[in-house]
């Protein structure tokens, strides 16, 4: 987190949590443009002027929430078992299962990320685009250094496989949103596991199937 948020992070944990919960709820329920900082302050039990004492503007608050929720998801996924798994497809299975569990217990996390990356506003769209561009290589470098990439066939670029999984998830969410239905995490998890199986059979050396 940036040093400019030092005042906010020096607050007692219960105060920080109240503001974070209120902000993630409002940003998850409303598009960025319609999300009200007055509503966030009211739900958090602080004044609007107090809110802007910690955050310069709505954009600052929004990006802080984005970073904090991203870290929360990473903390939930990268657990004690994570580094015991060296098979790429098994670790992806573990990751999506952990994410589904987190979203099940905190559904507004999914609402926030869906609104962030599929209904972005011009004030934050540039940052969100850069975030997504950097996210995949950063994930591989930070969390997948222990994976046995040698299990892929010599003619397969593992990074293409990683990106294909991202594109599959992206396309699935776009299709669901276009249809106007609610996102079903159980259905998405089931689909994702099918994609994992297909890609493993298409890209792994025979001895690892």
UniProtKB/TrEMBL annotation:
InterPro entries: Homeodomain-like_sf (IPR009057), HTH-type_TetR-like_transc_reg (IPR050109), HTH_TetR (IPR001647), Tet_transcr_reg_TetR-rel_C_sf (IPR036271)
DNA-binding residue intervals: 36-55
Organism of provenance: Enorma phocaeensis
PROSITE patterns (UniProt xref): HTH_TETR_2
SUPFAM superfamilies assigned to the protein according to its UniProt record, in alphabetical order: Homeodomain-like (SSF46689), Tetracyclin repressor-like, C-terminal domain (SSF48498)
Keywords, in A-Z order: DNA-binding
Gene3D superfamilies for the chain: Tetracycline Repressor, domain 2
Protein's recorded name: Helix-turn-helix domain-containing protein
Organism domain of life: Bacteria
Pfam families xrefs: TetR_N (PF00440)
Domain annotation HTH tetR-type: ranges: 13-73
């Amino acid at each position: 987190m940036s040093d400019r948020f030092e005042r906010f992070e020096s607050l007692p944990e219960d105060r920080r949590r109240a503001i974070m919960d209120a902000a993630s709820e409002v940003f998850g329920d409303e598009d960025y443009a319609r999300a009200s900082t007055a509503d966030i302050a009211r739900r958090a039990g602080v004044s609007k002027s107090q809110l802007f004492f910690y955050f310069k503007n709505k954009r600052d608050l929004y990006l802080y929430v984005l970073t904090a929720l991203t870290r929360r998801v990473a903390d939930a996924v990268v657990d004690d078992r994570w580094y015991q798994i060296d098979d790429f497809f098994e670790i992806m299975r573990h990751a999506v299962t952990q994410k589904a569990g987190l979203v099940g217990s905190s559904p507004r996390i999914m609402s926030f990320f869906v609104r962030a990356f599929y209904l972005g506003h011009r004030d934050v769209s540039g940052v969100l685009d850069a975030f997504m561009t950097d996210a995949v290589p950063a994930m591989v470098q930070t969390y997948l250094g222990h994976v046995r990439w040698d299990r892929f066939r010599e003619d397969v670029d593992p990074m293409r496989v990683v990106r294909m999984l991202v594109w599959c998830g992206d396309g699935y969410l776009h299709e669901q949103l276009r249809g106007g239905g609610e996102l079903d995490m159980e259905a998405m998890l089931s689909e994702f596991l099918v994609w994992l199986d297909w890609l493993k059979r298409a890209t792994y050396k025979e001895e690892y199937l």
